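Hi Y.,

Following your request, here is the sequence exactly as I used it, all 100 residues.
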Amino acid sequence: MNIAVNPLIINQVFEFIIMLAAGMTVMLFHDLFTEIKNRLKPGKSISFIQDILFWIFASILTSFFLYYCCFGQLSFHSFVAFALGVILWKIFFYDTIKAR
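Below is the corresponding structure, written out as tokens. Let me know if you'd prefer a different format.
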């Protein structure tokens, strides 16, 4: 018995996996950034500039992921997958960087 899967479902699963990876990647860089920032202890103005530059970098990185998986089209399941990637990163990998 052959079960044919609708191409729309295949595309949505692909988008979900890519955006899940995007959420985890952004959180990886965020944790690395905060760890470096905590060790260097910059002043408030430098820290503010670093935060702005990081979030610009994170938005560009997320845009690349979004463009790769669905040509930049925003959808609800993309947001859910990104948020789930962030949550999964916090649950499973957050302590690996913070433990050092």
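The chain has one domain: 12-98.

Thanks again,
Q.
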